Task: structure prediction
Amino acid sequence: MAKKSKLALMHRPRRLRRQPTRRALVAETVLRVDDLIAPLFVVEGKGRPEPIASMPGVNRFNLVDLVKECAELHALGVPAVALFPKLEVALKDAAGTQALNKNTLILRAVRAVKKALPTLTVITDVALDPYTNHGHDGVLTAKQDDVDNDRTVKILCRMAVLQAAAGVDFVAPSDMMDGRVGAIRQALDAAGYTSTGILAYSAKYNSAYYGPFRDAVGSAQAAGTRLLSKATYQMNPANRREALSEVALDESEGADIVMVKPAGPYLDIIREVRNASKKPLAAYQVSGEYAQIHAAARLGWLDLVRCRDESLLAIKRAGADMILTYFAKDVAKALAK
Ligand code: PBG
Result:
């Protein structure tokens, strides 16, 4: 005889949540180590790893330590790393000249990592911000009031070819110049690098969440401000349809993988792009997303590990196939347990 206290419910969704094994059976999204790309910073010299104050647990590595870190990530099963150089301020100039130096830090880093770990996928940024003294991603116009699109694209093409020659697996234009993906594809092919892929930062927003990264590569230090406006090339955070048109352009220009950046505050964009595009989709959980979780955890306001895992699961659920995240190593270790 049914007890009076029971409601006559046909549907009780909680049945599927009763115990961990039931929850596991019906989990729709799973974060895998194969989804992770670890961004890493590299510096000149033989110094010890340099901590970055606004990114707890993230260091800039010298070349030897970089290779060691990559080996550890590879052993943990992380399939890819994205390398970013921090140049000494003295090497930066308005033209970003060092970006085209055949022996510049990032090229030596790629060679060293690929030599030691040929099966690790290595990705490098194509943009001038680590090399310019104004911190912009390209060279400025004659009037110095904007980034010069077409002159910048020509430089980016040469940069991409140098990176391909150094053995990188994917070049990742993060500059948001118009037409750069097509121009880079042509330049790579003309130089014979038909197997070098393009991971396009397709919908990259003009975000305040990049602040800690600008400390990490010293582009803030060079420019004298972390709040440098990149509004004439990076996308307006107000726009969603425009992301789809940027992705469509990059696809038509030959992007192998498209990306949305930042990730957490832009889950709607990730979902829109996932629905609209057949390309693999990357999302970049940027420095500020990482920093805010750490900061709140330090204050005792949030649980670091649970917020870390939830933030990444949400990005995956939104539709990302792969995630660039500064949590990559920690998550890989946790998944290995
Ligand atoms: C530069 C670049 C940026 C990031 C990756 N490549 C910063 C910027 O555009 O100012 C940001 C990454 C992060 O915040 O973690 N082209």
Notes: The first helix runs from residue 20 to 25. The chain has one domain: 30-336.
